[in-house]
Specification:
The chain is α/β, with parallel strands linked by helices and 394 residues long. Helix content is 40%, strand content 16%. The model has no long low-confidence stretch (mean pLDDT 92).
């Protein structure tokens, strides 16, 4: 069996999708007697060379046509490369880009199955963005792509619901993102840590700096909690990530207006060793998002044994059920209540929550589990095995 993963961006520019697709590819080709052949195809960008090490499988990255709109990522050589791979099954990761049309063309020529993995891109919030572009893509090729899919993979029950709400009738397999456990040990403090007091406790956020992530409400909540609560005095909020559409400037203005510059810090994008050092030098993690598919950063925080504050919109109810996360709604008052709960926990309580999160990653979200479910779906679609339990009955 040969499984091909096809996507648009193949580096950090794809956000969490880059890590989850490369991680799945690596897990699928684990050295076992029945391991499938695995490869990937995507589009070249300026960061691919620095991030190439994440891809442990063969990958072809093709140049984007210079005239193509930035979001379309049109790569003229992609279809010939995909046909040459002689894939048994293709996983189409992400939507609304040229690689979707390539997958549809490949399927028409070969008659072989493909699985669409939306990665949150059929969520109601995401569908409201670039509506004209999405309408044109649907008319041109996306609706035909949806109709021809052998299956969809949903990374959460909420995403499965969004797929059905969009009108998709294909089978849906519910398989979450995976995460590996980092090696034991501590990293040297990152450079930004020197700007904090020696006794500072770090509440860490990393991800896109985008309105959907709920950071304005988090900053407002931070101001509420810091007003007269001694338990908050030692805590500092560290916000890492890449700015989108000038949102970071808006947040920095909010921090200045609320006089929070002493305890709120923007440290820019962090990757590889710098991100590892940040997680290892934090005491807790926060994600106040209004909409997610299944956020890899929360799995990372659990893997690094950090207690987590998150919203239900992160679509990780397992965390609340296991006692690995503090639940908070998206409004500032609710986030403030979550912050107070974290700050007033004992060290033993925070440690217990952190261990529960790591245990979740080691079991429910282990790459070996995710790969086994994915391979079972492929074998089912190829007529080799019966329908696996992860395929929803609806």
């Amino acid at each position: 069996m040969h499984i091909v993963h096809i996507l648009g961006k193949t580096s950090r520019q794809a956000g969490g999708l880059h890590e989850t697709v490369s991680g799945l590819a690596q897990a699928l080709q684990a050295k076992t007697p029945d391991a499938p052949e695995v490869s990937a195809i995507g589009v070249w960008d300026d960061h691919f060379a620095a991030d190439r090490h994440a891809w442990k499988c063969p990958i072809n990255v093709l140049p984007r046509s210079p005239w193509t709109p930035r979001k379309l990522l049109h790569a003229p050589g992609m279809l010939p490369f995909l046909l040459a791979e002689e894939a048994s099954v293709v996983f189409c990761h992400g939507l609304w880009s040229h690689h979707n049309r390539v997958v549809h063309q490949w399927a028409r020529r070969t008659g072989r199955p493909y699985i669409i993995v939306p990665h949150g891109m059929l969520d109601r919030v995401d569908l409201q963005k670039s509506r004209l572009q999405k309408w044109a893509a649907r008319k041109w090729y996306m609706d035909a792509l949806f109709r021809g899919a052998a299956a969809f993979r949903a990374i959460s029950q909420s995403e499965a619901d969004s797929i059905r709400a969009f009108g998709v009738r294909a089978p849906i397999c519910l398989i979450p993102n995976g995460m590996g456990l980092p090696p034991a040990g501590r990293a040297e403090p990152p450079p930004w840590r020197q700007a904090l007091p020696a006794n500072a406790r770090v509440l860490f956020y990393i991800g896109r700096i985008n309105p959907k992530k709920g950071l304005p409400a988090l900053i407002e909540a931070w101001a509420q909690v810091g007003n007269g609560d001694p338990a908050a005095d030692a805590w500092h909020l560290v916000i890492a990530g890449w700015d989108q559409d000038g949102h970071e400037a808006q947040l920095q203005a909010q921090v200045e207006r609320l006089a929070l510059g002493r305890t709120v810090h923007f440290v820019g994008p962090l990757f590889h060793a710098a991100k590892d050092a940040a997680f290892r030098n934090a005491e807790a993690f926060v994600l106040p998002s209004k909409s997610e598919g299944l956020p890899t950063v929360v799995l990372e925080a659990w893997a690094y044994e950090l207690p987590v504050l998150m919203t239900p919109q992160c679509n990780l109810p397992e965390g609340f059920a296991a006692g690995a996360a503090v639940r908070m709604e998206t409004q500032a008052d609710a986030i403030a209540a979550g912050l107070r709960q974290l700050f007033h926990m004992s060290e033993a309580e925070r440690r217990e929550m952190a261990v529960k999160g790591r245990n979740l990653v080691a079991t429910r979200f282990a790459w070996s589990t995710v790969a086994a479910q994915t391979l079972a779906v492929c074998e089912w679609l190829l007529g080799l095995k019966p329908k696996p339990a992860c395929v929803l009955n609806d």
